[in-house]
Amino acid sequence: MDAARVDPEVRAARRRHLDLPVDRRWARALVRFGARFLPPVATPGVTLDRVRDGSVRARVHRPDTPRSRAALLWIHGGGLVLGAAVMDDRFCGEVAKRLGITVVAAEYRLAPEHPYPAAHDDLLATWEWMRSHAETLDFDPDRVAIGGGSAGGGLAASLALRLHDRGGAQPAAQLLVAPMLDDRTADRRELDQVDHWVWNNRSNRAGWAAYLGSAAGGDDVHEYAAPARRADLSGLPPAWIGVGDLDLFLDEDVDYARRLVAAGVDTTLDVTPNAPHGFEGWAPDAAISRDFRQRAQDWLMKVL
Questions:
Q1: 82, 110, 184, 300 — which has fewest CB within 10 A?
Q2: What's the pLDDT at 176?
Q3: For residue 18, what pLDDT band results from cuts at 50, 70 and 90?
């Protein structure tokens, strides 16, 4: 990747971040240990509560002045092997305050200790918990969107597939930010030569292998594990897919968006120029990051 193409504000923020080899146990342990001590980010006008209920672990962001009875189930990223809901406190608080909705940020078990379908099952449990507690949390259980970033975006897409197949209550929308959708990208060895910032294809291959319990690109990968494997995307909820044009996931995200459109799903594809993976999170104050988050939130406000 040509670093000169990266937005200057994003490029400057990059200097404050390190890339770690996620295929190494020590690196995963270091990041996970650090996540345990991340301080919560308070958003004025938003109350943050932690939930521990059976297998459900979540952080609930509730606006002090609700303006809508809608809600969002948000799923953090981390390549399926890292991450915690606390990382997205700023984003979830921002959404809760600006849209006036309840945001439930889910925790889930991580690979390789807990391969597929552990994370997928945890998120289904959180979805069901949200619906069963809708009255207590004061939102309409039929106006719940699901969303996530990176691996969390892929998990959100897979949850939408499972809920569609199961029947019954469906998400009102799916907000997919640079979603990790297709294990077959990791099998494209030519991408190993591209210096994708934050999440390169070597990390991608390690993340998928940890989650699948086998090498990426195999013939027996379930569509709930890798949503891009799904042949029929019809009947899914409206989708917003946002990704930077320097992101490793660009091709798979654009392809998924086009296939959703072909299947008759109301879909918005938002490609940000000069932006690498996760730019809106690790360079949150850059102008292109603010604009990106606002477009995502404007779409969510409209669809809900």
A1: 184
A2: 99
A3: low
Arithmetic mean of pLDDT over the chain: 94
Phi then psi dihedrals of residue 176, to 5 deg: -115, 110
CA distances from 33 to 28, 30, 37, 207, 279 (A): 8, 5, 7, 18, 23
Q: What is the CATH number of the domain that holds 68?
A: 3.40.50.1820
Query: Looking at the whole model, is its pTM more than 0.85?
Result: yes
Is residue 79 left, alpha or beta, with left meaning phi > 0 and alpha meaning psi from -120 to 50? left
d(CA 148, CA 178): 9
Q: For residue 171, give its domain range.
A: 3-303
List phi, psi (to 5°) of 7: -50, 135
Residue predicted with more confidence, 38 or 146: 146
* Mean pLDDT of the region 108-118: 97
Q: How many domains does the chain have?
A: 1
Which one has a higher pLDDT value, 2 or 192?
192
Tokens standing for residue 224: 């709930």
- Percent of the chain scored above 70 by pLDDT? 97
